[in-house]
């Protein structure tokens, strides 16, 4: 293991997965664009879809194994607003694996050719559902997320 708890023996593919979402009326704030809090919801919705479709393990299957993800840190950088009716793509990839968590990077793009609206990263800690405490990532989870 590298300093800082990074998993070094597993090469990361950093494969990017994309989900398409649409801005809904209840996402809009008084400034007529998407409220800042909704960007985290968009990231979570995309990851939820991608867990089942792209990693081959739905969140329900994951929690049935006794595990969950806790958002430890979230960093968002807003570039341009999303507005009512906008269709946009949320692209995510696992950038780092740690002994007890992952760093997921993301981009949110609207329109064609895909103007960047928001990007950033999130650090998730793996927790045992029964205790709510952080735990080491088992090898079978590392294999799923190292693509």
Characterise the protein shown here.
The structure is a single chain. The chain has 147 residues and is an alpha+beta fold. The protein has a single domain, classed as Hotdog Thioesterase (Thiol Ester Dehydrase, Chain A), CATH 3.10.129.10. Helices cover 21% and strands 36% of the residues. The chain contains 3 helices and 5 strands, in the order βααββββα. The chain has helices at residues 36-53, 59-64, 139-145; strands at residues 17-22, 67-78, 87-97, 101-110, 115-128. The protein has a 5-stranded antiparallel β-sheet with strand order 1-3-4-5-2. A hairpin with a 4-residue loop joins β4 (101-110) and β5. The model has no long low-confidence stretch (mean pLDDT 92).
CATH topology call: Thiol Ester Dehydrase, Chain A
Strand order of the largest sheet: 1-3-4-5-2
Largest sheet: 5 strands, antiparallel
What oligomeric state do the depicted chains represent?
single chain
Structural class: alpha+beta
Measured distance between first and last alpha carbons: 19 Å
The CATH class name reads Alpha Beta
Strand proportion: 35-45%
Number of alpha- plus pi-helical segments: 3
Over all CA atoms, what is the radius of gyration?
16 Å
Number of strands: 5
């Amino acid at each position: 293991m590298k300093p800082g708890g990074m998993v070094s023996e597993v090469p990361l593919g950093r494969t990017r997965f994309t989900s398409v979402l649409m801005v809904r009326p209840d996402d809009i704030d008084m400034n007529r664009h998407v409220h800042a809090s909704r960007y985290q919801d968009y990231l979570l919705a995309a990851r939820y879809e991608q867990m089942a479709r792209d990693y081959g393990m739905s969140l329900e299957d994951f929690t049935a194994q006794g595990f969950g993800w806790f958002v430890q840190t979230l960093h968002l950088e807003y570039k341009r607003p999303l507005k009512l009716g906008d269709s946009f793509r949320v692209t995510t990839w696992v950038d780092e694996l740690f002994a007890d968590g992952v760093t997921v990077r993301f981009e949110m793009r609207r329109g064609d050719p895909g103007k960047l609206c928001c990007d950033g990263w999130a650090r998730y800690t793996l927790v045992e559902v029964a205790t709510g405490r952080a735990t080491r990532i088992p090898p079978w989870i590392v294999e799923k997320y190292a693509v």
